[in-house]
Design a protein that fits this description.
The protein is α/β, with parallel strands linked by helices and 446 residues long. It has 18 helices and 14 strands. It starts with 9 loop residues before the first helix and ends with a helix. About 9% of the residues have low confidence.
Length: 446
């Protein structure tokens, strides 16, 4: 179906045509008419299927049709889990609405709030925000959400995973009861359906792909390797196949920094992107990656949400995620908009259970290919990743505390609590009493 058949305004169709699109994707074909009609929507679609345009285009159409004279007021709110996703949605709003008269802004942390509050005071029609920063501004009375007509939750499953549910509920209480609600998610879960049941009113439910399944155009491959040789194999594979624009996933921020530095040492230009990076550093890293200045972008799961990279050919899992659904999100960064992509996973013996969980979710075994010279050592025993993580998180575990050395005949040392109590008594004494004690001290010494 063509975009021109969906009932969108001419200004929007012109902008869509200039971006190079003419035919709507399945999620766009089904969602746009419902949003235009003012119906609540519960939509599940894979990453890369065009779901951002599925709510952005009709949202802009409705905002334009129902605009009124007078001071600008915020009429549409889009909530996203990460800065990158909020920035990407904001860019889509500007791109598709280039021939329409409205004002929008992205509100998220990691940057100065003053610039954002200045934009709010000047008047906005659409706000794209992360829950944390938006709630901070609302509690400071810097933003008024009482005129919201359309609420959009994008990547709602990730917002729940990141623990935003309390902030989201506080934000919901600041909104008018009568509004249109749109919930878009890459995957559905029982928690998402519970959220939807309390938020949506007789929604149109749209599911354009099998639950938690990756795009069909993603070819998947597992490279077995010992853990200590992963970085070596990664550099070898990238160099041997002359890979360009490679998105590499690690589990931790520290791991992303370390791997990016090691790749640079190997002569492969790389940059890391994660939550501890400033927004400016993240934007520069992403810009360098898109332009080709940086060959490899190393990212964590949260930071990668919302990365919109045209024709990204390769995704490499340097470490498998703990949650199988995150694997689907990761490889969904490639094979977007009908293109093809490749997802490669470096798997050590510690990650065999994680791989099995992913394959159960997918419903099939992923092809495996051993790289000559990097064959895993069968003598290495498995140390489950989940167990290792649990040990790190434990405050006390058997054998974790170093036993105190005790010599035969040594006296028992006073406890720390007893040593702290004595100076506390002196601390409670009045200044005059302390002076009298100091004067009497030499007499006792004699």
């Amino acid at each position: 179906m063509l975009f021109s058949e969906l009932g969108l305004r001419a200004e929007l169709l012109r902008a869509v045509e200039e971006t190079g699109y003419s035919e709507a994707t399945p999620i766009q074909q089904q969602a746009i008419p419902h949003v235009l009609a003012g119906t609540d929507v519960l939509a599940g679609a894979q990453t890369g299927t065009g779901k951002t345009a599925a709510f952005t285009l009709p949202l802009l159409d409705r905002i334009h049709r129902t605009r009124s004279r007078g001071p600008r007021r915020i009429r549409a709110l889009v909530l996203a889990p990460t800065r990158e996703l909020a920035a990407q949605i904001s860019e889509s709003v500007r791109t598709y609405g280039r021939y329409m008269h409205f004002k929008s802004a992205a509100i998220f942390g990691g940057v100065s709030a003053r610039t954002q509050t200045d934009k709010i005071r000047k008047g906005l029609d659409i706000v794209i925000a992360t829950p944390g920063r938006l709630l901070d501004l609302a509690e400071q009375n810097e933003i008024d959400l009482s005129s919201i007509e359309i609420l959009v939750l994008d990547e709602a499953d990730r917002m729940l995973d990141m623990g935003f549910i309390r902030d989201m509920r506080k934000i919901f209480r600041l909104l008018p009861e009568r509004r249109q609600n749109l919930l878009f998610s890459a995957t559905f879960s029982d928690e998402i359906r519970k959220l939807a049941s309390g938020l949506l009113d007789k929604p149109a439910e749209i599911q354009v792909a099998t639950r938690n399944k990756p795009a069909e155009r993603v070819s998947q491959l597992v490279l077995p390797v010992d853990k200590r040789r992963k970085r070596e194999l990664l550099s070898h594979y990238i160099g041997r196949h002359d890979l360009r624009q490679v998105l590499v996933f690690t589990r931790t921020k520290h791991g992303a920094n370390r791997l990016a530095g090691q790749l640079e040492t190997d002569g492969i230009s790389a940059a890391a992107i994660h939550g501890n990076k400033s927004q400016g550093a993240r934007t520069r890293a992403l810009g360098d990656f898109k332009s080709g200045k940086v060959r490899v972008l190393v990212a964590t799961d949260i930071a990668a949400r919302g990365l919109d990279i045209d024709a990204l050919p390769y995704v490499i899992n340097y470490e498998l995620p703990h949650v199988p659904e995150d694997y689907v999100h990761r490889i969904g960064r490639t094979a977007r908009a009908g293109r093809e992509g490749q997802a490669i996973s470096l798997v050590c013996v510690d990650e065999h259970k994680l791989l099995a969980a992913i394959e159960r979710l997918l419903g099939f075994k992923i092809s495996k290919e051993t790289t000559p010279g990097y064959e895993p050592d069968p003598r290495i025993k498995s140390e489950p990743v989940g167990q290792q993580r649990g040990q790190r998180q434990a405050t006390k575990s058997p054998g974790s505390e170093k036993p105190a050395s005790k010599k035969p005949g040594s006296k028992k040392q006073p406890s720390k609590k007893r040593r702290r109590n004595k100076p506390q008594a002196n601390a409670d004494a009045t200044p005059a009493r302390r002076r009298r004690r100091r004067r009497r001290a030499p007499q006792r010494a004699v």
